[in-house]
Specification:
Order of helices and strands: HHHHHHHHHHHHHHHHH
Number of helices: 17
Structural class: mainly alpha
Radius of gyration: 50 Å
Distance between the termini: 118 Å
Strand content: under 5%
Number of strands: 0
Shape: rod-shaped
Length: 493
């Protein structure tokens, strides 16, 4: 009969037998102690292989093998102690055996604690591998279903900056939550993959399925979304925002950036519960703030277009693109006029300099005394002849019609600051805002005695040579040679 069966049979005895001395008890306990010692020795050798220092070097596959091996060794180890305690309870042992059993209990306790910690460490390595494999699979699914989307990870450790979570949340909703055709389970996996540290620990207990997506968002909002603090930060940005106006920024790029930034801030404030409806006090304050910070040229253009000195924020958003487009056209036309005028003036100066150089090279090289002319008389005669010859040369070389032709399609430098329609110095003739339509401009030219085709003051429309001939220069607006820029039909609409 084995000691296991003996122990089992002895367990069935009544309490009276526990005080009696059983001759087989010493033998059974001896066998149990021997088996216990063998298990302790084997376990000690194995634990040396899987010491805490060596666990760090194990691969996940090796950790799984070690975990199963230690579990198999623990079963007989636990069984030996259980048998010892059963014998101690059922038999009256000698004092020496009783002391021995107590020693073995201490040995078991020490080895059991070490074994439990080793098994826990191995289990952690195995779980990390499974988690990494799951994360890798989830990440691949995310990349396939949400290609090209990356969000900066949120850790949730700095609570002093409420904009971090708000920015993370806004980006997640714009790039992921708004995406159609993607299941809530995939969105939840993307959210979990975008968190780290403390923020990840909040939703880590939730199973990665679609039913927990909104629950995860609510948990994160409750922990990190401080609407009052976020609104305060947004209002600070709105009040401190100013367009970087540069005189060289003729396309008003910075102004457009400013308007877009204000619109984004207002949209965020609306989502957080603030009201900027037309007619409200907040809308009036916003309109005043934005309009007064626009460049003066843009303000003037809005006033002319809307016929209102105080446009609302909605008016600004609706018309700013067209206003800036018209300003760009005017600047481009003005720059082209100035460029052509400078080129014409430069060409005339170069021509005169060339004539002066030719005149100097044609001076008489022989002394005047050799021609029989007295010095005093010859000097006066030479000076007179020189001036006369130079004047004739200039008049013969410079085309008479050149100055006239230039005035037909461009404003002369002396006339650049004087509008031919309204005599204003605030704008060029091409951009007169008093006489806007072509009909009004033609009538005005006839009223002031200018040609209604080329705007010349030397003749009338009936004898204008451009009535049937094209102009030398193109219209700056439509690139046509059939009319000049101030009388362009598209500009006058």
């Amino acid at each position: 009969m084995s000691h296991k069966n003996k122990v089992k049979g002895s367990d069935e005895k009544d309490s009276g037998s526990s005080e009696s001395s059983n001759p087989d008890a010493q033998k059974v306990i001896g066998e149990i102690i021997s088996e216990f010692d063998i298990n302790v020795e084997i376990l000690t050798d194995v634990m040396k292989i899987y010491s805490p220092a060596k666990l760090e070097d194990l691969t996940p596959e090796e950790a799984e093998v070690a975990y199963e091996r230690l579990k198999q060794l623990r079963a007989p180890f636990d069984k030996s102690l259980k048998d010892l305690l059963l014998c101690q309870r059922n038999y009256k042992l000698e004092e020496s055996l009783t002391m021995r059993v107590m020693e073995l209990k201490d040995v078991y306790s020490a080895h059991s604690d070490t074994l439990s910690s080793t098994l826990a460490a191995l289990k952690k390595i195995i779980n990390e591998k499974k988690s990494n494999d799951l994360d890798r699979d989830n990440l691949q699914i995310i990349k396939n279903l949400l290609p090209g989307i990356e969000i900066q990870k949120f850790e949730g450790e700095n609570l002093l900056d409420p904009m971090k979570f708000y920015t993370f949340r806004k980006t997640f909703f714009e790039l992921v939550m708004a995406r159609k055709g993607v299941s809530d389970a995939v969105k939840f996996m993307f959210l979990k993959n975008s968190l780290t540290g403390y923020a990840l620990s909040i939703i880590n207990s939730l199973t990665p399925d679609g039913t927990n997506l909104q629950k995860a968002i609510d948990m994160l909002d409750k922990e990190f979304l401080n609407k009052t603090a976020v609104c305060s930060k947004l209002f600070e940005r709105l009040m401190s925002l100013t367009p970087l106006f540069d005189k060289h920024d003729k396309n008003f790029v910075e102004t457009r950036k400013y308007i877009h930034c204000v619109r984004s801030l207002v949209n965020d404030l609306v989502l957080l519960g603030h009201n900027f409806d037309t007619g409200s006090t907040s809308n009036a304050m916003l309109s005043h703030l934005v309009f007064t910070r626009l460049p003066w040229l843009v303000q003037s253009a809005f006033t002319v277009r809307l016929k209102n000195n105080f446009p609302t924020f909605d008016d600004i958003l609706e018309h700013y693109a067209e206003v800036i487009y018209q300003l760009n056209i005017k600047h481009a036309s003005k720059d082209r006029v100035l460029s052509i005028t400078k080129e014409s003036a430069s060409g005339k100066n170069n021509h005169v300099k060339a004539l002066q150089t030719n005149n100097k090279s044609s001076k008489i090289s022989k002394p005047l005394s050799e021609k029989g002319v007295c010095p005093k008389e010859s000097k006066q005669k030479f000076t007179k002849t020189k001036n006369l010859s130079y004047a004739n040369a200039v008049s013969s070389e410079v085309p008479k019609s050149s100055a006239k032709d230039r005035s037909l399609n461009t404003e002369d430098e002396s006339q650049m600051k004087l509008c031919k329609f309204c005599k204003s110095k605030e704008h060029l003739t091409s951009f007169c805002n008093v006489y806007k339509t072509k009909i009004d401009r033609v009538n005005r030219l006839e009223a002031v005695g200018l040609c209604s085709i080329c705007m010349s003051s030397t003749h009338k429309e009936s004898v204008c040579k451009f009535k049937s001939a094209p102009f030398r220069f193109e219209c700056f607006i439509c690139k046509s040679n059939s009319h000049i820029t101030p009388l362009c039909p598209s500009q006058s609409k």
